[in-house]
Amino acid sequence: MNLDRLTELRKKKNWSLQDTADRLGIAKSTYAGYESGYRRPSFEALITLAELFGTSCDDLLGRHFEKDIELTDLKKKELSVDYRKLTETETSGVIAFIRAMREIEEKK
Amino acid sequence: MNLDRLTELRKKKNWSLQDTADRLGIAKSTYAGYESGYRRPSFEALITLAELFGTSCDDLLGRHFEKDIELTDLKKKELSVDYRKLTETETSGVIAFIRAMREIEEKK
DNA sequence: ATGAGTTATTCGCTAATTGCGTACTTAGAC
DNA sequence: GTCTAAGTACGCAATTAGCGAATAACTCAT
């Protein structure tokens, strides 16, 4: 059970092992151990890594977890189209749109 | 850094410490250590726990991670409205709907 | 090509942590 | 009261993390 994506994510950021270790506040050799699979990060380090690389712990752990997203439960703006976030108005519009579509469909 | 939600999730399932430990294939006292914060699970155990409890590792780790969802990138149906999954047609409809809304908005 | 400087990999050692069994405590059923 | 199951706490053995130092690989300029 290795953290296979670490190297990839780190290189994408153009960071050296030392850079990354510094950001984590650990020794270079320690972080190197994570990438090689020789060592495992503490939970704190894992969480910090996820933050640094802008991803989830599940992702780092190689777990492709996907929760179903219920639009009526969304409190925050999390959806985007063409890489532009939806406003609250747009999100409400989408919900209404879907309900309308379904209503039409049922009457067929 | 404790796994505070474990007890809550276990009780929601009406499992004893022993039940849960059995499912994980570890000793009761070991699992008890996770809940009390005295011990920490291995990554394998963490992942299995997330599976057993139907949640994410991020959730168990107390991390409220939310990725921005780009609708045009969605390969699978992950969205739902009124707890009913959107079909592919509906998802395409939503994207077209948003683009149309924005076009109208820009022309104002 | 040589050498300086940076980056990556490996290793021994120590300190810390895990996982287990066991024992103790509590709670409820009979 | 006694029995069983649940939860808690602890000592011990074994594993593991983290560190620095040593070594190897890579990248430049000269």
From TrEMBL, chains A, B:
GO molecular function, one term: DNA binding
Keyword entries, A-Z: DNA-binding
Residues covered by the HTH cro/C1-type domain: 6-60
Any Pfam family matching the protein: HTH_3
InterPro entries assigned: Cro/C1-type_HTH, Lambda_DNA-bd_dom_sf
Name of this chain's protein: Transcriptional regulator, contains XRE-family HTH domain
Organism: Terribacillus halophilus
Lineage, top ranks: Bacteria, Bacillati, Bacillota, Bacilli, Bacillales
